[in-house]
Amino acid sequence: MACGILMPLGGAVAADARRLDIVFVNPGKTGEVYWDMVAQTMQAAGRKLDAHVEVLTSERNYRTMQELGLGVLARPDKPDFLILSNEESAAVPVLEAAEAAGVKTLLLSNTLIGEDAVRLGPPRQKLKTWLGDITTDLQTAGARMANALISVARAEKWQSPDGKIHILGIGGDEITPASIARNAGLKLAVDAAPDVVVDRMLFANWTQSEAEQVTTNYLSWASRKEIRPAGIWAGNDPMALGALRAVTAAGLMPGRNIEVVGLNWSEDALREIRAGRLLLTDGGHFLLGGWSIVLLRDYADGCDFAAVSPRVEVKTSAITRDNLASVGDLIKTRGFDRIDFSRFRAKAGRCGQYDFSVNALISSLARPDGLGD
Amino acid sequence: MTGPDRDVQAAPPRLRSVVRAMIWATVPVLLLVQLLASAGVEASSFWSQIRQLDARIARTAESRGELIAEPLWKMRYDQVTSVLNEIMHDETIAAAAVYDDTGVAIARVVARPSVQAVAEISRPINYSNGNITVQAGRIAIAYSYATVYADTGSRLLLLLVVGLLATFATMVAMRISANIFIGKPLAAIMSAIQRSKQDGRAYPADIGSSNEFGQLARAFNAMQDTTSGALDRLGHMAAHDPLTGLPNRRSLSERLADLSGAAGSPDSLIAFCFIDLDDFKGINDTFGHDAGDKLLVHISERLREAIEPQDWVARLGGDEFVVIRPEVSNEATAQAFARQLLDAISEPIRLHDKQVVPRASIGLAVRRAGDPELSHLPALADIALYHAKSKAPGTVAVLDEALQRDYRRRRDLELAIPTGFAEGQFEVWYQSLVDLESHAVAGLEALIRWRHPEHGLIGPGEFLPLIERSGNNARLTRYVLTDACRALQRLAAAGKPQIRIAINLPPSELADHSLAAELRATCLRFGVAASMLELEITEGSLINNIASASETLHRLRRLGATIALDDFGTGYSSLAHLRRFPLDKVKIDKAFISEIPDSAEDKAIVGIIASLAGTLGLTLVAEGIERPEQAQAMREMGVRFGQGYLYQRPQPLEAVLQWLEGQRGSDSRVDSPSIAPEFAA
Fold it and tell me: Inter-chain contact B104–A217, Cβ cutoff 8 Å?
């Protein structure tokens, strides 16, 4: 269990503000980069915004996740807020239990979908304590990644004998909203490009090894079909790295005669970008952890984000060789305390209006060698 | 009779049991049908299993294809392999492979190299999601029918074993049931038939069942009853006279055997009465055979009534009856018993509204029960009966020594007849026929004698019946005829050609159509005229066969012979005969002559005969004239000729010729044996 470290930061919090008690049930695994970074930014923000953030890790076991959430709700000393992620729709029972327990909840990264969304409606209606959700616009991210591939392929004329640019898509899964959104972005971009065809949309369970396997299979198949693979679109960085290995093993030279894109801003991905083997990694959405604390701080201080919408959607950004230098170190060192989260709080009278862009982030960063202004 | 090897050759065809034949006829068919049916069912099952297996593998391929479609399309080849591996649990599958849309084998599993694949099935793998439907590849499964073959083989073996067991069980059941329902009843009937064959009695077959064999057995038993009754009746008929119901001749021998075997004391006397009705033929002729039968029935009833319970009465046939009394005290009581029977028979009876008094003669023989010759009783009694019939009809003749002697003599003579002919023991003697007025000899009558080497000279009265009975009448007649012709030659040579010779014709000769021809031939042979012969007949000859007798007489007469009616007055003395037949002469029987002239009645009779003969133009001869006054009386009554001892006794021809030579007066005598009676007496 990761425990938040209380690091009060002066000046950023209103004088009448009280210290918040927040619990985050992490759906990921310890060592899973994205969810680790979500928790770390959340805790970094808590330190800046006078909030105690308790992180409970469910180790990718949704049953454990539900048990942890319900355990928190059963506590005599209930927290002020409970942050959940509706991965595999496993957060719904906890969400309903929180309504009964009177604990306010925020959904992070994955919100209600399908029947649950229909049944429970929008936030704060049926479930009064469900304050809202904060998610990233992963569809735009997926489309951005695809367009980057297409641009390079067109420029390099990597068309197959049939005159088409052939791309392999590797998705994490087919059911989580986060995956569906980025896959939809791929489709959106390819549909708009008549000279591009996605040979296969393969799924590798977000893992590097499976991605490597399916990529190997694809490349073998493509060679039999006399297809010249132009690019590989991977739904996250580990799968992109797996694809890279397979590509290399197949005798191709990534960055030279094929391009691979990933998502997550992972450290390994940044290294591959630097090496010129990975075209880009989109992402930055791990910052949702910090942003969620910003929203809850404002809400607790009376500036409700629902003034604009209870649903906050944050855009992602791509890291390429061009902007690698600015954020590379932040991610490499996980020095999230360099981010001045208080600067992202809503201005008075403009509740619900936030600028969580990469440029805003870059400008908020304190220098690594000292606390930024 | 039949040698052992003949027995082997002629051994009856080996008995083929109907049960075994049924089993042989049905069991192979049953077995064949069972095996064919099993094989047919099994073949159909085999093909059905093959089809099922094909269908199952096809389903497997399709279902696996569906499962594999997504991992195949999504290039999760490890999953493809693991899904493919799962189907290898099916032991009929030898190998399976999945090919992608380029035809490359993505996954390939081989189960047991030992399993020989004989069939292969291939199905496309189609992948589809909301947007696309594509053929992602193919799945191919190779599989073996070995399990089906093995199953079929083992089931066929099982069916064969079950079929054989069922056939065997059927055979045993058939054998048992056929033995019970067919074999046993047949054996029962056969056994009854065998026993019936052994002792001739009708045994019933003991079958209680109500099926066809029960019915057969009942029918058989009914038939046995019928047969039994028929046999009883047959036995009764064989032993009894159908007309009177009395035991018959066959029963008599059994009865005699019983008497000799089971008589109380060997010294007790058995009376055997042999009864013969007198002139039963006359009754038949007069009243008809129905009346004759009725008479026989009456007689049998009277005999039944006349006897005691221990007595036994039988009808031997015709008009012969036998009555046996098993115990009599002596011969006198036996004789009294026989007379009693005669009295019973002689009660008058009505036949066709006419009163008839039946007469019978009885030969009585009395013998001890222990007599070893008891079985000869009928013959002995017959001897007595013969005596009674011939000497005193209507009486009882008791068998005694004399009768037996007579019988033995008769038997001896009868046996000696052929020798008598062969050795010329028969002699023809002649007696003269004299004109009563002139005393001249008008003719001779040929009379037969037998000079027997042991018994001496025997008169015709004794041996003629024996001649007749032995069928030698014709021979004797020819013998006499020949002798007479030779005598005529001698007479002619002796200067007496006017003397004719009369010969007696027995009744049977009148029926012989060849007589006239032979007579003529004989006359020709000796050179004598047939007109020198006279043929004497009796009325009895005429009665028996009027037409034939008349024919023969006419023929003889056409030859020139004359016909004389002998012994007139004692028999029928029919006036019609005198008129109807071609007669020349009538000889008055000596019975009417002997009392003349003392008997006025006889004189009257002779007078009437004489006047009748005169009217009819017949010549009269008086026989048996012994005294001169008789000759005188005859002359006075108009009788022309006479014959008798007064003139000449019968003599051999030589003596007669001598006598004729020396004859000068009517009183002359020639010595001759005084043997009476004369011919046809």
Answer: no
